[in-house]
Input
Amino acid sequence: MRVSQITGRRTNSLGWAKSDCHTCTSLGRHCDRRRPRCSPCLAEGAVCKGYVQQLNWERASQRNRKHRSKEYSQIAAVETARLGDTTASLPKPDKFTFVDHAETQKRQRRRSRTQSKSSDTSWSQLSPVAVVSIDPECSDDLISPVSSSPSWSASSPHTPSSVIGTQEIELRLSPQISHHAGDIESSLSFFHSRFAYTTLTFDVNVNPWRACLPAIHEDLPCVRYAAVALAQRQRAHFSGKPEGPNTLHLKAKALSLFASHLKHLSFEGGLSTSLLLIALDYAETGISNWTIHLRGAFHILESAGGIRLAESRPNLRSQIAMLIWYDVTAALISRYGPVFPESYIQALMAWQADEEWSILGLNGMPDGMFLDMHKLAVQAAAGDKTDLTVVYAIQGRILNADINRGDKYQIMMSQVWQLGLLLYCSRVFPCSFPIHAAASKKLEEENVALGSEGSQQSLLDPHELGLQILEMASQIPSHSNYQKQCLMPIILAGCEMSAADKTHRKIAIDYSERWKQKTGIWIFDSGMEFLRGVWACNDVGEDAEDVVDVKWKTWTRVFVPKPGHGFLFG
Output
């Protein structure tokens, strides 16, 4: 249990809750239900995790919330009118509750008071669980559920509840959506139950995408517009049809309101909007000016108080972790440095609890490597001022990272990322990549490197690293999210394949095409653009015999750093 320095007097303006707080419930102790923090938690100096909230879409003015000034509503109305009426205005639902369609005809018994106490306010706690059967050879879409239940089974992010076999996999997935695609409730339900899982490795109790949804109540509907646009975009990609003009119109509305009235948004709403706008862009392409959204999110946080805001807010921590992940992965490719400082990651890792979320669960990167990944991005932006001593220390920590946790395929995913970062070092810092004999021996013992039996100053061949990455990634089941999360290492490895490496190039091509189709996210298609750009610069003809024996042109020379423009492969 983390200890928080709680200062100041507590007011009772919010009255008393109807059920015990989550902290007291988990400890099985008496709770006096005072708001905003109960007395037992205050007395122990512990974080009071709050009270049960009903999951429904309600106008803020219809719930027990503070009424926002009428000025905000007038601003939103004027802005909507200014943007034109090319599409029907997006309604704000009076009431919407997520329903598991497989259980709609079953009357649930009224839950006892004891049972209701065990509820959690996290949006992910309310997600349906689907058990599905898969044929890996003929899965054209994300795994379709065959049965579902509204129950929730929490699991540690380091031990995901998934069993990968030859024919069956058990994951928490979305129910099928039967509403009309243009309906706002249907779109929000699709976002809640489908897109919220798309980017994750496995379920986490604090889902960063669902953490955006409470902000749809705000009078300035930036989050609502962005979430519906994102759902419509992904649906269009799943169906293989061009997205309608309404998607672009909603995105334009969200951007306009966000840019013009940022001061009127709560920081939760502003941060959620930034995260959704990034997702809107990478759902369409991996090539964009990512720093605009990231700097906006960082400015919102700094203006509201900085990273300290997240100390007692798990949802906020999860959202910030996702933003920093995109920041670091984009910075690695662009070599222009991350927007978020190192202190943010250090704070997140210090406050993180395994039962909430993990970088592994969110993005597939072993948590112990995340800070070093950020340090690499900083050094890559330093150019001639790169501190090679720092780079060498990072390389050593990556080599010695403990990645032998979890099942077979989770370990393989972690090894792919380990090799991917080593490959990155070999190309971005080619003069600073000496591998000591002990480190080379460790790689051989783990069967994650080829060759490299030389002296202390021997170099690990980038081409051999690329071969190992692609071969290992191809051994992870093609329907597994573990393979999906290997995008950046696979792209970097593919860049090392010559025309003579047709088999390994095909692994990268098949991977990108398959996961673009499965996820409805075209970031995988942009990865192929990146690869083909490198291959075109190194191939003279289609056959291996036509390739001229010249020095290999690396991806760092093909895609030189450009301010305000970069690739996002995380």
In short: The longest strand covers residues 129-133. The CA atoms of residues 403 and 414 lie 6 Å apart.
